[in-house]
Design goal:
The protein has 468 residues and is an alpha/beta fold. The protein is built from 16 helices and 17 strands. The protein folds into two domains: 254 residues, 3-Layer(aba) Sandwich (Rossmann fold), CATH 3.40.50; 186 residues, Glycogen Phosphorylase B (Rossmann fold), CATH 3.40.50.2000.
């Protein structure tokens, strides 16, 4: 089976969040199952693009509205990622450093989608399935089904995976002319609440819809930023498949980014060495429990509450705990988190920005990872933490609920029910009590490091879905 994954992100080429991790791993594991999975994404001006070898596989022209533009598609030569990687170069639109955040994002991702379909239409064969990820590729199922220039691939099955239903890519009908010619009677397949909504259109037009955890599929039936009724209508073709993690990338016994590699048998010594190195860099005491947060500093992640959460926890602990933050996002939150460095020197620190190596070091050296999310479709950080022997403190929502069991229920994590300062502080207090029970912590670490959250099972579930 030949599977084409279309995505705006793919680790290590370009990653903003969990979407990049998923698309960077799922195809590799599908290939291991004996299939041919490929990724086609925009050619951003990233470090990966500059440092690797590519060959041109396609030179052509595509059209966005009344504008014709040249398209060049590159293939990474060495297959170093475990799958064929194709990058779509569109001069002036996709050749930028950042993935998102430009005023012309609508035009950028529409041009990318049209270019990909123009290219596939020229193949001598047809892929078995086209797998679209989030709204950036959400108009592909519609265009394949209804646009005249893509009619020779209209019978290729399409699958949509919703990584986050809060972001839908909607834009006004004044840009309808960007979409290749189709029967205007089909315009309803694009519409949701008076706008062209790529995510809604993909939900309507895809042959199958998946979410990145079973619980998230349930949750978006009543909280999906306006798509609740549509998702309820299309529930019959929808399924929740829990994301996995790439055990080749996230492997503490072979992770070159760590101060000291470790396994289940050597977890205590390994975490102690990594914690000491981490605390040395950030002026923290390795003898105290280390609470951490890694991620985007946005409301979905509960990050707006972090300054108050950490202020209260550090004030009440009277110097008995440490806190370390890695992330970026809301400038106001960034400023407040930075300010805490002056309030609690020696007990608190923060790195504002993105740093892949530091994230690995924090997972390896921390005692606890906080995820007080308001929305968490799947969550990968908690699975990384489990793999590295770091106990997750999570809200019971989405994929967090599917992957973390509270110690009070004979589990291995600390769970709470609300994204509130009080709830998280209470959970941190429970974590401190657990930290004092060294024997219990050792048992939990060894147990959770052996949990299997690899992509093997999820990759097979997707293959089964394609064949229905």
């Amino acid at each position: 089976m030949e599977i084409i994954h279309l995505s705006a992100e793919c680790y290590p080429i370009a990653k903003v969040g969990g979407l990049g991790d998923v698309v960077g791993a799922l195809p590799k594991y599908q290939n291991k199952l004996g299939h041919v999975a490929k990724v086609v994404m925009p050619a951003y001006q990233t470090k990966f693009m500059q440092e690797n070898e590519f060959e041109v596989v396609y030179d052509g022209w595509s059209k966005l509205g009344f504008h014709n533009f040249p398209v060049r598609i590159f293939r990474e030569k060495t297959n170093k990622l475990g799958f064929d990687l194709y990058l779509v170069h569109i001069s002036g639109l996709m050749d930028r450093e950042k993935v998102y955040g430009y005023d012309d994002d609508t035009e950028r991702f529409l041009a990318y989608q049209i270019s990909v379909l123009d290219w596939i239409c020229q193949w001598e064969h047809r892929p078995d399935v086209i797998h679209c990820h989030d709204h950036h590729t959400g108009l592909v199922p519609f265009m394949m089904a209804y646009c005249q220039q893509f009619r020779n691939i209209s019978n290729v099955p399409t699958v949509l995976t919703i990584h986050n239903a809060q972001y839908q890519g909607q834009f006004g009908w004044d840009k309808l002319h960007y979409i290749p010619s189709f029967d205007l009677w089909k315009s309803g397949q694009l519409d949701w609440r008076g706008a062209i909504n790529p995510l809604a259109s993909a939900i309507k037009c895809s042959w199958r819809v998946t979410t990145v955890s079973p619980s998230y599929l349930d949750e978006i039936s009543f909280r999906a930023n306006g798509l609740e009724d549509l998702l309820a209508q299309e529930r019959g073709k929808s399924v929740g498949i829990l994301n996995g993690i790439d055990n080749d990338v996230w492997n503490p016994s072979a992770d070159a980014m760590l101060e000291k590699q470790f396994s289940v048998k050597t977890v205590e010594a390994g975490k102690k060495a990594n914690k000491a190195a981490l605390c040395s860099v950030f002026n923290l005491d390795p003898e105290k429990p280390l609470y951490t947060f890694i991620g985007r500093l946005v409301g979905e992640k509960g990050a707006d509450l972090l300054p108050d959460i950490f202020y209260n926890a550090l004030h009440q602990a009277n110097g008995d705990i440490n806190v370390l933050v890695l992330g970026s996002g809301d400038p106001q939150v960034e400023g407040r988190l930075n300010h805490l460095k002056d309030v609690f020197p020696g007990n608190y620190n923060a790195y504002i920005g993105y740093n892949e190596q530091l994230s690995h070091q924090i997972y390896a050296g921390a005692d606890f990872l906080l995820m007080p999310s308001r929305v968490e479709p799947c969550g990968l950080n908690q699975m990384y933490a489990l793999r590295y022997g770091t106990i997750p403190i999570v809200r019971r929502i989405g994929g967090l609920k599917d992957t973390v069991i509270d110690i009070g229920d004979a589990g291995f994590g600390i769970c709470h029910d609300q994204t509130s300062v009080w709830d998280v502080n209470h959970a941190m207090g429970r974590a401190y009590e657990l930290y004092l029970d060294k024997k219990k912590v050792k048992e939990i670490r060894k147990f959770m490091m052996q949990l299997d959250h690899s992509w093997d099972n999820a990759a097979q579930q997707y293959i089964d879905l394609y064949q229905i």
